[in-house]
Amino acid sequence: MTTAFHNAILVLEDGSVYPGQAFGDTESSTYGEVVFNTSMTGYQEILTDPSYAGQIVVPTYPLIGNYGINRHDFESRRVRVAGFVVRDHCDAPSHPDSEMTLDEFLASQGVIGIGGVDTRAITRRIRTRGVMMGIIAVDQSPEQALARLQELPSYAATDFVSRVTTATPYSWDQPVQGARVGHMPYRILVSDFGLKYNILRLLKTRGCDVVAYPARVSAQELLDWKPDGILMSPGPGDPELLDYLTETARGLIGHVPIMGICLGNQILARAFGGDTYKLKFGHRGGNHPVKDLETGLVHITAQNHGYAIDGDSLPAELEVSHVNLNDGTVEGLRHRSLPIMSIQYHSEASPGPRDNEYLFDRFLKLVQECKG
Asked: Fewer CB within 10 Å, N- or C-terminus of the chain?
């Protein structure tokens, strides 16, 4: 059911207006880049994914909140989305692990949601026009909301990595299920560009000593920690704004095995002189087909990015390892001689299919070969 708190509207920068009812923190308004996600489940993981910082997320699946919020499915410490727009907001969840409703969760985090909205119309508009800035406003006219939106900075002008990264390094010591016995305890440093906890869980499951580090740590400091490998994580925003990350990556090349995921993939490409560009409406959801060019297998992948690598700009030393079968965009890279690999989609899923966890094993095989 949809719970009515206050009348609210979502207004896009092109002036289109979508009315609904506010839930969560109904006393606030919010703005951000409006994007859609095609996953059918996993709204708690989406809400807490730091890659959504600065964005208003619109799930295409119509019923949201039906299994509530639990203590297990957090991918960071808190809600990271700027706002949440749903068709039907369920305020009476049914699940044995549920501890609060979606409305209670967003209210506790100071984030506004809006329900009863025609999310299909929003999605079709974004697919046609491309992603746009938007504002969720309570008790305002569309004209007032649009005027306010036009005064606010654009998504592309903000360094969101600096907002979501950890302030200090930390070890991942939480217990994990299915830990593998007999694996070498490699020391893997994981950048917190906006990482999801499941990256740390999957490395820990494979026996690694895992330490997350802040985005602005220098390459030399990372190498002083004597890691066996470095994983550059996903994160939000335009990689063209993140030259400090590119410089750090450049200082690591040739010294240690590296794996990049999503933003980490883009930063690695830029460190080698490649270019990135903004997609019209991005890839977000758990149902994107990608071909692994090494094995020929097609995997269904979880994705969340609005930028991609220009394959024609890559140097000869990098080869494309994965390709998106929907639009042909670059989905992975491999260095021809150095122990470096990267992937554009979220190999850690959460939410999404677990088909792509093999990539962590492929990375640790590179680490093992270097150690050997």
From this structure: C
Sorted by where each begins, the domain ranges of the chain are 6-156, 161-371
Give 118-177 pLDDT, tens digit per residue.
999 999 999 999 999 999 999 899 999 999 999 999 999 999 999 999 999 999 987 776
For 119, the token pair is 């999310």
Among residues 13, 33, 45, 348, the one annotated as catalytic is 348
What secondary structure letter does DSSP report for 360? H
In degrees and rounded to multiples of 5, residue 209 shows phi and psi of -85, 110
262 classed as catalytic: yes
Topology at the third CATH level for domain 6-156 = Glucose Oxidase; domain 1 (3.50.30)
Average pLDDT over residues 320-340: 98
Task: Give the separation between CA 94 and CA 50, rounded to whole angstroms.
Answer: 27
- Among candidate residues 89, 288, 299, 346, the one labeled active-site is 346
For the domain covering 161-371, report its CATH number.
3.40.50.880
Predicted structure pTM score: 0.94
**161-371 and 6-156 share a CATH fold:** no
299 assigned to active site = no
90 is catalytic: no
Active-site residue among 45, 262, 288, 335? 262
Q: Give Cα separations from 199 to 11, 110, 189, 210, 328 (angstroms).
A: 35, 27, 11, 10, 26
